[in-house]
Amino acid sequence: MGELAGMTPTETLDVLGRVCPYPLVLTKKALEKLPGGSLLKILCDAPASAKIPCQDMQRGRDTNLSP
Fold first, then answer.
1. pLDDT tens digits, 1-50
2. Which regions of 11-64 does DSSP assign to beta strands (E)?
3. Which residues are paired to 42 by β-bridges?
4. How many domains does the chain have?
5. Which residue of 8, 29, 53, 62 has the smallest Cβ count within 10 Å?
6. Helix, strand, coil % (nearest 5) of the chain?
């Protein structure tokens, strides 16, 4: 996780105030648009959306969490 601190996100997705499933759906759409090797920063305050990285890794993407 420390390696993310010095990186600049390719794109930032703001889903603050949104409830599930919207953060997951919007994250999926944003990831589909990004080229490989990109860094997506997700601003989210929905506790149920903590599963986003787990669901994304199941689809074969490399996912890192940073608080």
1. 457 678 888 899 999 999 888 888 888 888 888 888 888 888 888 887 76
2. 11-14, 40-43
3. 13
4. 1
5. 8
6. 40, 10, 50
The DSSP annotation for 50-64 comes to GGHHHHHHTTT----
Q: How far apart are CA 60 and CA 67, in angstroms?
A: 22
- Overall pTM surpassing 0.85 (yes/no): no
Domain containing 25: what range? Answer: 2-57
Structure tokens at 27: 């994250």
Calpha distance 2→65 (Å, rounded)? 10
Classify residue 64: in a domain, yes or no: no
Predicted confidence at residue 50, as pLDDT, reads 66
